[in-house]
Amino acid sequence: METTLAAEPASVTGIAAGELADFDAVVRAHQPAVFRFLLASLREREPAENLTQECFLHAYRGRRSFRGDASVRTWLIRIAVNLVNDHRKSARLRFWRRAAQTSLDVAFTGDWLADRRSSPEAEASAREQVQAVWRAAAGLSQRQRTVFLLRFVEEMEIREIAAATGLQEGTVKAHLFRAVDAVRKRIGDTK
Amino acid sequence: MSGHLSPVEISEWLAGIRTPGAERHLAECAGCAWELERASEPLTRFGAAARAWCAAETPAPRPELVAPTARRRQRVAAMRVVLAAAAALLVAAPVYYQHQRALETARQDGALLEQVQTEVSRSAPEPMQPLEKLVAWNSPSGQSGSSQ
């Protein structure tokens, strides 16, 4: 059973109130990343939007507890991670376990590949790969999926993931290894 | 480290578990370096696609989300106005009440003084005033008849 991460971002210490003085700027700068993580985690737009708002409200209320040990982004992602955990518990979401695809699963066709200079065959193969990874991520445990998304979608370093999840760096690496290995095997199965 | 990187070691590397032995081997072995690149490609592509997709899905920031500071400022400003009005009322009410009371006291004092003045100006008690009128009527000087 997965343990609950700290409910409040109280572990951040040091003085960094200045970074949060202009909270509107904080929202503008970090809303895309927070929403991206929530959308990729929940795979549903409405809860992702609501939790994004909730994330910033939590951050605003708890801004005095932010001390700057971690970056503002890491601090916000940590709040988002906790919200995802709480949301899954309270709503008993099973989106990632559903046999049927959600509307977002259908929408995520891999058409968003950045490199379109390759041949149509290579592009189709790449699109299949991306979809395969997306589907494989659905089979991961919540914690494995969280660290997987933070690493490969948010491009966070191991220490940042550790700060965002409240896990030890070694634990992050262990979860990430299991996630990567499982995804690679799944991709291999689907090839 | 002996031999090439195993699939598990490649997964370990991708997960950030990097040993000096694997690092040395990757620096020397083009095959393993290529294999590592090939293994990381789907993950890198997935991340890029997910970011691009999420960027397209990202809603415009809600006003209530973007400007909690501004909303708070507005609330604080409104609260200040209310508090200032309440404070002014608290200060003004006793002053007004005192002022009104002072006016009332002055009015009562004035009435009392007038009454006293009236009483004092009388030369004879009220029951004897008709007699006084009679005396005043008989006397040309209007004085009582003490000289008579």
* Major β-sheet annotation of chain B: none
Order of helices and strands of chain B: HHHHHH
How would you describe the shape of chain A? globular
Quaternary form: heterodimer
> Portion of residues in helices of chain A?
55-70%
**Alpha plus pi helix count of chain B:** 6
How far is the N terminus from the C terminus of chain A?
A: 32 Å
Compute the CA-based radius of gyration of chain B. Answer: 53 Å
Write a short abstract of this structure.
Helices cover 64% and strands 0% of the residues of chain A. Chain A is an all-alpha fold.
Which features would summarize this protein structure in a list?
heterodimer, A: 191 residues, mainly alpha, Butyryl-CoA Dehydrogenase, subunit A, domain 3, 0% strand, globular, disordered N terminus, B: 148 residues, 2 domains, 6 helices, rod-shaped, disordered C terminus
